[in-house]
Amino acid sequence: MPPTHQRLFYREAIVRALRETMADDPRVFVMGQDVGAFGGAYREFDGLFAAFGPARVRDTPVAEAAMIGIGVGAAAAGLRPVVSITYMDFLMLGLDPLVNYAAKLSYKTGGQLHAPIVIKTTAGAKGQGVAHSQCIESWLMGVPGLKLVCPSNPADAYGLMVAALEDPGPVIFVDHKKLFPVPGDVPVARYRTPIGTAKIIRAGSDITIATYSYMTRVAHQAADLLINEGISCEVIDLRSLIPLDAALVAQSVARTKNLLTLEEGQVTCGVGSEVAAQVQRRLGPVRVHRVGALPAPVSSNPVLEAACIPNAQRLVDEIKFFINATNPECLHP
Amino acid sequence: MTRHEMLYSMKLIRAFENALAAHPDHGFQLLSAGEEAVAVGVCAALAPQDQLLTGGRSIGFALARGLTPAEVMAELLGKSTGTNRGKGGRGHLSAPAQGFFGAHAVVAGNISIAAGVALARLMTGDPGIAVVVFGDGASGAGILHETLNIAALWRLPVLFICNNNQLSVSTPRQAVLAPKMISDLALAYGITARTFDGMQVDIVAEAVANAVQAIRSGAGPAFLEFTSCRFAAHSTAARETRSRDELQRLRLACPIMDLTAALLTTGQINHEALATMDSDVSDKVAAALNFADASPFPDAAEALSDVF
């Protein structure tokens, strides 16, 4: 029997999804900074240039607005581009074609045109400082017309990339810098992870932690530590932020009675705020606590970066306070 | 397109816009009186397989490209029989099946999109080219420079056309753009670029035809600037900043009157034929208005369709 799974690094799972889909579908191509022979800043495009050549793996100048605009135009005209924006911070430079054009295109043309584009970008802190570390996923969550996925492991990275490449789009695909070298088992057979489905990645009974991307690992670490304290954590990997699978979170919270949201970005108008609101719409008032970065820039200074971003010990402390608090949202003055 | 047809097309645009502006429910509209020669000259030089993209001031281009006055009027008045089922409206007319990829009302917002359309054509071997029209107001935007650079590098089959009507809402072009000619912007990227009189439809049509031919032969992108003149305020809701006297003087150089005079002088048209043309244009516009007025608004449920 041939093996059913293969061990891949996260970055290799991305390459595999792209390579397979590009071989099947001549409309799919990649454009971005250093995506060609260099193989991408995190080697997440490794080998594609050799396999498909410069016409389908296009190096671009540093011009995020035009990269996204040209990608969106090519998508509207029938291709399926993958535009790589090296850092999510620089997505800001290309928001006009993404938000004002791509997200509105199907609607404003009365269904005549669509923008099946994947914008692949990388968020999160890894020592790169105030303008190369931000997680601004929640900025996009209020834009009708966009989809947004944030995988946390190689298997989901593969499945969500395949799904994104087949979606009518536009899809924003957000990696986390610390995930690229993470290994995991990936099914050998081609599959897609449906966009808009969250997953319970750890069963528990006392509290629901709704999180995504790299913070799923922090949630696991905290949950391990809390076993000794007699607190059982259920961890949900949201995987997609648009659409948001609030139903699964609500089912969990109906059992645990406690919802903690965990993100690496800001809690103000953050992912957790939206998760909490959608869960409360389903269940009525529930106990909610939001955890995220401190309300400050993320420094490249290792001490300050670590102080800003949630880690396992901080999460343990937050959960213990939350479980015991009578009015959890008053934890922090 | 013959000179007769170009005159007819310009007259249709003028009459259509006048009728739209007089419609009590027109909301506010971006009109183009004075700039008809650019719209008609550009479209006269395009083939059916080409795609035209424009800025928000797009009525003239949509009509010159061959969209019916009825479907354009319906769209501009928000009716479900419009080109975009009433969902795009002013500044977002779109009919890609007719070679009008569409208008986009963000100033400079369609420039990179057009380069993307051109890239799709290049990669699929489609013989059509992409043509994007933008104003002098868009020429100070960074996206123009980013796109010119990539279009030149990748030899994209795209024609950049600056319809320089010399006013960005109220701000004169000289006050906000440093280059002597706007077409100078493209020269730095090795793109063939020239400036022409945009008030003469023959000149526009010939310049565009030459550029299109070069692009079709694989020469890469080209850039044309046409100097035109907007006879009315930025929109039907905007304040006019020019004096009555100045406007009267500007309107003397009218592309429709100029072509009419030229055709009369050379005996290519007579007054009887002109009268027939005018009455045909009026009938078409009246029919378009009747069609739009008789058409329903979209159902409110349409607010949630085609979003994802």
3D architecture notes:
The complex is a heterodimer of chains A (333) and B (308). With 333 residues, chain A is an alpha/beta fold. Chain A is built from twelve helices and 14 strands. Chain A has helices at 10-24, 48-52, 64-76, 95-101, 105-108, 137-140, 154-166, 215-227, 246-256, 271-283, 302-308, 312-324; strands at residues 5-9, 28-32, 57-59, 80-85, 118-123, 147-149, 171-176, 183-187, 199-202, 207-211, 233-237, 240-242, 258-262, 287-291. A seven-stranded mixed sheet of chain A has the order 3-2-4-5-7-6-12, with helices on both faces. Chain A starts with a strand and ends in a 9-residue tail after the last helix. In chain B, strands 2-1-3-4-8-7 form a six-stranded parallel sheet, sandwiched between helices. Chain B has a two-stranded antiparallel ribbon with strand order 5-6. Chain B starts with a helix and ends in a 14-residue tail after the last helix. Chain B has helices at 3-22, 36-44, 59-64, 69-76, 111-124, 142-153, 173-176, 184-187, 201-216, 244-250, 255-265, 271-294; strands spanning 51-54, 100-103, 130-135, 158-164, 167-168, 171-172, 192-197, 222-227. Chain B is an alpha/beta fold. Chain B has one domain: Thiamin diphosphate (ThDP)-binding fold, Pyr/PP domains (Rossmann fold), CATH 3.40.50.970. The radius of gyration of chain B is 19 Å and the shape is globular. Chain A binds chain B through residues 29, 55-56, 58, 60-61, 63, 65-66, 68-79, 81, 96-97, 100-101, 106-113, 144-145, 147, 168, and chain B through 51, 82-88, 92, 94-97, 101-102, 104, 106, 109-121, 123-124, 130, 142-143, 146-147, 149-150, 153-154, 305-308.
